[in-house]
Amino acid sequence: MGMIGYLKQISNELLEGIIEGKEHITDLIYNNEDQSGSLDIDKAWHAIHFILNESAWEGQYPLINVILGGTELGVDLGYGPARYLTNEEVRDVALSLSNLNENEIKKRFNPEKMKELDIYPSIAWDEQGDLEYVFSYYEEVKKYYIEASGKNSAMLLYIS
Questions:
Q1: pLDDT in tens, 51-83
Q2: How far from 134 is each of 8, 27, 68, 87, 127, CA to CA, in Å?
Q3: Strand order from edge to edge, sheet including 5-10
Q4: Residue 72: what pLDDT?
Q5: Is residue 77 in some structural domain?
């Protein structure tokens, strides 16, 4: 199965409830009845972080927040705790992603460097097939953040 990345748009009120302990994040994440508002980015999460930040784990605001940033919520979900972005942080991410063009992103795809940095899922990264896989998920992430920003939503980030 592996480590699958997820983004989930939530209201600011729901985020406040989670932070204050009135809502349980595990109920929200693992409630199979309501997966609306979630985006499954499969195993492309680490490669997306890499192409945006040109680093395995580090980065600069706001692009570090796209996949691996945010504030930890403290409950370990198996691959670490979920994290959240406020609606303001979501807006900053959406604006930054909107300003990146397709060619710039594709130039950052570097299979050699990705192998060297052990970018998950640590496959033999190749030029064409893997670029298409990662770029298709990157486009989904970009659209998702722009949509969330338009709704003034906060965001949960987690790997399961």
A1: 999 999 999 999 999 999 999 997 788 899 999
A2: 19, 30, 16, 26, 11
A3: 38-40, 5-10, 154-159, 81-85, 71-76
A4: 96
A5: yes
Q: Are 89 and 70 in contact (CB under 8 A)?
A: yes
Residue 14 lies in a domain: no
Q: Which tokens go with 82?
A: 């979920």
- Domain span at 63: 56-119+145-154
**Banded pLDDT at 35 (limits 50, 70, 90):** low
Give the total number of structural domains in the chain.
1
In a domain, 126, yes or no: no
Residue 134: inside a domain, yes or no? no
